[in-house]
Design brief:
Layout (H helix, E strand, L loop, with lengths): L1 E6 L2 E4 L4 E9 L4 E9 L6 E7 L4 E3 L7 E6 L4 E6 L8 E9 L4 E4 L3 E6 L1
Parallel strand pairs: 2-11
Antiparallel strand pairs: 1-3, 3-8, 4-5, 4-9, 5-6, 7-8, 9-10, 9-11
Length: 117
């Protein structure tokens, strides 16, 4: 089992910045990809950004150039630096880890990000 704990959400004005953190614990060996997804009210959960153990990153088009995903392997932590935030970025942000040959997905509880206009 892998446990994921997110932190760093909150309320910010449009144009502002926030940094989300996600700490992984438990059976962290074998995690080959971590990332962030988000879900706005009335919408489906969508991918925001991912990063592999080889530091290959992938971003949704809507956040490219504004968000940066990074990881600290020593701390088993992944970060999402969010700049130039827009009201449409308002959502619950979920940390995700993919582990093992079965590509099993683990999810955190989510952290609310609210961007006011």
């Amino acid at each position: 089992q892998v446990q994921l704990v997110e932190s760093g959400g909150g309320l910010v004005q449009a144009g502002g910045s926030l940094r989300l953190s996600c700490a992984a614990s438990g059976s962290v060996l074998g995690i080959n990809r971590m990332g962030w997804h988000r879900q706005a009210p009335g919408k489906q959960r969508e991918l925001v950004a991912t990063i592999t153990t080889g530091d290959t990153t992938n971003y949704a088009d809507s956040v490219k150039g504004r968000f940066t995903i990074s990881r600290d392997n020593a701390k088993n932590t992944v970060y999402l630096q969010m700049n130039s935030l827009k009201p449409e970025d308002t959502a619950v942000y979920y940390c995700n880890a993919v582990r093992g040959l079965t590509q099993y997905h683990y999810w955190g509880q989510g952290t609310q990000v609210t961007v006011s206009s």
